[in-house]
Amino acid sequence: MGRWTQYDEDNYRLPEGMKRVGYDADSERYYFRDREGLVYKGPEGSEFGELTLVSEIPSSIPQEVDEDSDLEAAPTGTDGYRILALDEHGTRYNPRGGAYRTLFPFFLIIAVVLLLVWRLVLLPTRIAPVPCPSTTLSYIVQPGDTCWDIANNHNSSLDKLLIVNPRVKCNKLMPGDRVCVPDEGMSISVRF
Predict the structure, then answer these.
(1) Cα 7 from chain centroid?
(2) Does residue 11 contact residue 5 with C-beta atoms inside 8 Å?
(3) Residue 137 CB: number of other CB atoms within 10 A?
(4) Contact at 8 Å (CB) between 132 and 186?
(5) Which residues of the chain have pLDDT under 50?
C-alpha cells in the first residue's frame, strides 16, 4: 500500500454515515446512501464530488445493502434471476443473433484455416510439365548452369536449344527447371 492511499477510501472522503451503494454505468454516476436511507448521486464521470439528493433510484441499485455485498454485481430478483440491462426507453436489451453472433469470428477463422489446408494439401500445386519431343532428352537444370553450358555439354548449339524450348528465358534459369535438350543426331528446322 502506498503512503497516501487512506485518502482515496470512502470512509475518509465521504461524510460520516454515507456509504457508496452502487454505480450506474450508463450515466457514469456513483450512488450513495446515508443513515436515514436517503439516496444521493455523485457528479457524472467522477468518483467523488458534490452529492445531489435523488427521489428515485435506478433499478440496478439494490434497496438494501449488506456489509459484505458486492457493489458491482447486478442485483437479483426474488426468483434469483438477475435483472437484464434496459435501454433508454425502459425495454430489455436483446442482442440480435444471440450467442452465435459472438462466435462468428471464431467460425470465420476456422473456415479460413480449413480452406488453406484444403488448398495446400489436397489440391496439386504443380502442373505436370509438358513431355519433351521424342527427338530430345529431358535435362534438369543444376545450380550454375546456363543455356550455353547445357547445349555445349550435349553437343548441340544454343540456337537448337532455344528452338526446342521457345518459352525458356536463359537469364532466368532456376535450379530444378526442366529443359528439353536436342539429341546430337537429330535435325531441327525452324518453321515460320
Answers:
(1) 42
(2) no
(3) 15
(4) no
(5) 188-192
Q: What is the pLDDT of residues 143-187, one digit of tens each?
A: 999 999 999 888 888 898 898 888 888 888 888 888 999 876 555
Nine-digit cell string for 57: 433510484
Beta carbons within 10 angstroms of residue 81's beta carbon: 9
> What H or E segment, with its residue span, contains residue 99?
helix 98-117
Can you read off the three cell numbers belonging to residue 105? Answer: 469470428
- pTM for this predicted structure: 0.34
Q: Among candidates 179, 184, 182, which has minimal Cα distance to 141?
A: 179
DSSP output for 128-190: PPPPPPTTEEEEEPPTT--HHHHHHHTT--HHHHHHH-TT--GGG--TT-EEEEE-TT-----
**DSSP-H helix ranges across 128-171:** 147-153, 158-164
The grid cell for 108 is 470465420
